[in-house]
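[09:14] KT: can someone run the structure on this one? pasting the chain below
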Amino acid sequence: MVAKPSDNTPFPVYAEDHVQGPGCAPFTLIQYGDYKSSTCRQLFEIVRGLQITMGEQLRIVYRHYPLSGIHPEAQEAAEAAEAAGAQGQFWEMHHLLFQNQNALKQKDLVSYGEALGLSIDRFRKDLRKRVYRERVREDFRRGVQNNVFKPPALFLNGVRHHEISGLRRALQRFPDPLAASG
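[09:31] RB: done, structure tokens below
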């Protein structure tokens, strides 16, 4: 099922996307990621810094793009993030997965769910039954449609940036969002 976009940007944000930041933010960063990728882990830290620096000026959208052939644990980690999201804790699980990307076996995922205080029976059942497999695949399909071949893939206000350094250069061209608010 394809959901309707929640806005009319050149690169739409969908109702089922995981979003942090206001819809009216002047900058929207859509990222496709893999929880096992070291480059995605680096990007995770950079994005956290951008969120602190830019505050309400930045909206972050995260989409899954697990390269299961290279990173066998990435698909289940993405499904675990979705299962946590179903209990209102997507971003908390997202952070744990990137912070612990060398420990993404099912027992690790369950322990992260316990640490977050999730309904662990429901979480385990969701993982066992692969409830969110198609949800993760839908993100992957959207990535393919947008010419994503490997993560991370970054789109700032609809413009593709192939490298983290390119994203940094693009943001440097924008006025300092903190100076504009002061």
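[09:33] KT: thanks! The domain at 38-158 is CATH 3.40.30.10 (Glutaredoxin).
[09:34] RB: yep, looked fine to me
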